[in-house]
Amino acid sequence: MKRRVYVNKRKFRVLLDTSFILPFLGFKTDEVVMKTLPKLRNYDLYYSDLSLLEALWKIVKVIKREDLGIVVEGLKLIKRDLSLLDIDERAVEVALTLYICGHKDLIDNLLYGIAVSKNTKFLTVDKTLKDFVKEQGYVDVFIHPEELE
To answer: Fewer CB atoms near the end CB (10 Å): N or C, the chain?
Structure first.
């Protein structure tokens, strides 16, 4: 007979990749991300200022003046409902190691490094990063949308 193990989701810490930050700022992203959003309320959610910066880089390419208020309100929502994780020395070390080994997306490397450093799961749909980390034998801190309840 199998024993069920119950996980307290509120103790499950999840760092959101930028693609999961964009909807908070009023911008839709791919279908997988949008379908995952309702599930996120079951977890302790974290963000990095790096994701905000990366999201804004994407937003400035398409934003209209009338949408500025939505972005500002979304930022307030993020700061109110999510917790900030800062970059530390360990995160930088991990990120630069990945970069030197060949993964040239420094923002993704830093987000991964933060998740490693802060012992947090990293929610992403970035298969390239996940595959690279696995090939290099680094710690798997990834959680994918289909793994969320």
So the answer is: N
